[in-house]
Write a structure and sequence with these properties.
Blueprint (H helix, E strand, L loop, with lengths): L14 E4 L8 E3 L4 E3 L4 H7 L10 E3 L11 E5 L10
Antiparallel strand pairs: 1-5, 2-5, 3-4
Length: 86
Amino acid sequence: MHPGNPEIDVYIGEIRLFSYARLPLGWLPADGRPLSVNHFIALFSLIGTTYGGDGEKEFALPTLESPAPGLQYCIAVGGVFPRLQD
């Protein structure tokens, strides 16, 4: 990671396991919640309706269960848009 900006290496849609009581900015729990397509356009363009939603107004985050108490999987909703392979 870049020492001056830890978000430089965070890709939108990336999933990480956190043990924090509060989440860092730009991350949401991977708990299946619905999100607005209009508010999270970049993430929607990457995962679409893979995990649910109507694809017009909303889409859903993946649901990933905690591997142990005090840990939670989270998905990056902010960061760098990944360059994808053709």
